[in-house]
């Protein structure tokens, strides 16, 4: 009597979606064994690919065959037993030596005859061909996806793979974390490690729960996928996915990446180097260090900033670093908010959010009513056309007009939902920056931090006649115009002045 071992396998990484699950294979084999009156000693299952040798459970099946504990194998199809030449050869060898007397498959005919072995060899060969060809098929499919603008692999941070559309969608939560990480890095002063810690804090981490590696952070910050450009196998493709990182922000991040990776040159790291240009000739402002030595052996270091005078003759003189620092500190201080202002602005923002939400609801309701009215008109128009009251040409013309009107109304609704409180995000960013500016302005020996904050509050720094001028960004210009009233603790008079600054009313903050 032939004793069969039933072997069921399902590969976890297999692309062949038609293969039955292990549970389904067991059910099918039990029914087949009952119908054919087969004696099955046990069922052995395995979830592993057969592309390469090394399956533990399959080896156990062969071991028991060699020991004489069984002399037949029952499986769904020959490709469940082998998809490589070595495992297929072992099965054939056991048949040749007589240790394996029979193979049974519900979906394949086999007899232990020269013809049967020949057909089995063909089946194993087809299975191996499938594996060999699978990689090429996958590559071809990926190339077609890329041509269609679809990313064929795991979604980058801030995106999510959509199993229904097989595309890439923006993750509504993690995309905000990624955008904030880009913003923090673009501001300067942040390392890859600090960005990794920030990402970890807000849910972007490795599978083991630890922060992502430095290389992964760098890849994220330099990945043009966030601009809609995909790089796959050293080739660039235009992606069809939506983006949430602006070109300007991405370029600013690349400058910071270049600074970090730029080989450090021997020399000095001057705090205000590269901040301003000459107000007379437009050339860059460079820094110099001079050491004055005294007779007693001691010395004193002096740092100066001056025009390089590389563009044309220039009469501008140098300015000392303490003088430069004092001017920048005043500029930053006037643009700062005392920490006591934080609850006032937070309350202000919350009130603005409620106001915007109410306004959006009212406008959306009005638009919904207009859309409904348009649909009623379309239905009436159709009824008139069907009753042959309206001529076909007039019907088509009026239908197109009403349809266009409906599309415009739907577009307005979409804009309201999309924009919402869009101005409040930069408003919060302004408040945080202004609070930081106040702290930096009060601190000591922090010239580098002072330079970073100065670049946040303004741009176009010019040095002329030893005076720094700057174009302050709105609304820092409004704060500075109040003579630094917001840099002090709030009082009834300053509160009255600040909350009535033109352009700072809730809802009017610039995009």
Give an account of the 3D structure.
By secondary structure, the protein is α/β, with parallel strands linked by helices. Among the domains are: 3-144, Rossmann fold, CATH 3.40.50; 159-261, Putative Large Serine Recombinase, Chain B, Domain 2 (Hect, E3 ligase catalytic domain fold), CATH 3.90.1750.20; 276-328, no CATH class. It is 50% helix and 14% strand. It is built from 16 helices and 14 strands. The longest helix has 45 residues, at 342-386. The chain is extended. 22% of the residues are buried. Residues 500-511 have low confidence and may be disordered.
Structural key phrases:
3-stranded mixed beta sheet, 16 helices, Rossmann fold, 4-stranded parallel beta sheet, 14% strand
SSE arrangement:
Layout: E1 3-9, H1 22-36, E2 39-46, H2 56-67, E3 72-74, H3 78-81, H4 85-97, E4 102-104, H5 114-147, E5 159-162, E6 167-170, H6 174-186, H7 192-201, H8 214-222, E7 229-232, E8 235-238, H9 247-261, E9 276-278, E10 285-293, E11 299-307, E12 319-320, H10 321-334, H11 342-386, H12 392-419, H13 424-442, H14 447-457, E13 458-464, E14 467-472, H15 476-481, H16 492-498
Parallel strand pairs: 1-2, 1-3, 3-4, 9-13
Antiparallel strand pairs: 5-6, 7-8, 10-11, 11-12, 13-14
Helix pairs in contact: 4-5, 6-7, 6-9, 7-8, 10-13, 10-14, 11-12, 11-13, 13-14
Strand content: 5-15%
The rough form would be described as extended
What is the CATH architecture assignment of the domain at 3-144?
A: 3-Layer(aba) Sandwich
Q: Mind describing the biggest β-sheet? A: 4 strands, parallel
Describe the structure in brief.
With 511 residues, the protein is an alpha/beta fold.
């Amino acid at each position: 009597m032939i004793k069969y071992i039933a072997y069921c396998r399902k590969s976890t990484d297999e692309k062949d979606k038609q293969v039955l699950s292990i549970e389904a294979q067991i059910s099918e084999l039990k029914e087949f064994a009952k119908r054919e009156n087969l004696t099955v000693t046990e069922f052995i299952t395995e979830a592993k690919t057969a592309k390469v040798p090394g399956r533990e459970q399959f080896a156990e099946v062969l071991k028991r065959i060699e020991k004489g504990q069984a002399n037949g194998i029952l499986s769904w199809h020959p490709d469940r037993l082998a998809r490589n030449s070595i495992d297929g050869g072992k099965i054939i060898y056991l048949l040749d030596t007589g240790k394996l007397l029979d193979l049974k498959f519900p979906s394949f005919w086999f007899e232990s005859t020269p013809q049967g072995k020949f057909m089995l060899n063909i089946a194993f060969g087809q299975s191996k061909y499938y594996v060999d060809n699978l990689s090429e098929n996958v590559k071809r499919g990926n190339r077609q996806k890329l041509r269609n603008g679809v990313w064929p692999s795991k979604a980058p941070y801030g995106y999510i793979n959509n199993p229904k559309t097989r595309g890439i969608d923006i993750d509504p939560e993690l995309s905000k974390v990624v955008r904030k990480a880009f913003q923090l890095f673009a501001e300067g002063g942040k390392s890859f490690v600090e960005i990794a810690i920030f990402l970890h804090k807000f849910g972007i981490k490795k599978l083991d729960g630890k922060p992502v590696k430095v290389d992964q952070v760098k890849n994220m910050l330099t990945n043009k996928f966030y601009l809609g450009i995909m790089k796959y196998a050293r080739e660039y493709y235009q992606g069809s996915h939506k983006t949430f990182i602006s070109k300007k922000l991405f370029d600013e991040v690349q400058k910071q990446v270049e600074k970090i990776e730029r080989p450090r040159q021997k020399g000095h790291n001057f705090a205000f180097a590269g901040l301003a240009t000459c107000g007379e000739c437009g050339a860059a402002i460079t820094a110099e260090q001079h050491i004055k030595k005294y007779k007693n052996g001691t010395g004193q270091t002096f740092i100066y900033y001056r025009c390089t005078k590389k563009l044309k003759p220039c009469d501008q003189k140098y300015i000392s670093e303490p003088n430069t620092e004092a001017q920048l500190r005043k500029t930053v201080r006037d643009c700062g908010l005392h920490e006591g202002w934080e609850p006032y602005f937070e309350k202000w923002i919350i009130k603005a959010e409620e106001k915007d939400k109410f306004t959006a609801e009212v406008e959306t309701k009005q638009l919904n009513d207009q859309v409904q009215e348009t649909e009623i008109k379309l239905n009436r128009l159709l009824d008139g056309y069907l009753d042959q009251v309206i001529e076909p040409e007039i019907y088509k013309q009026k239908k197109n007009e009403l349809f266009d009107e409906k599309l415009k109304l739907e577009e307005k609704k979409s804009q309201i939902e999309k924009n919402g409180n869009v101005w409040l995000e930069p408003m919060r960013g302004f408040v945080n920056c202004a609070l930081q500016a106040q702290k930096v302005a009060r601190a000591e020996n922090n010239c580098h931090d002072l330079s970073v904050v100065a670049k946040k509050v303004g741009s176009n720094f010019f040095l002329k006649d030893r005076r720094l001028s700057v174009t302050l960004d709105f609304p820092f210009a409004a704060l500075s115009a109040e003579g630094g009233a917001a840099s002090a603790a709030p009082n009834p008079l300053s509160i009255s002045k600040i909350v009535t600054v033109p352009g700072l009313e809730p809802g009017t903050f610039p995009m």
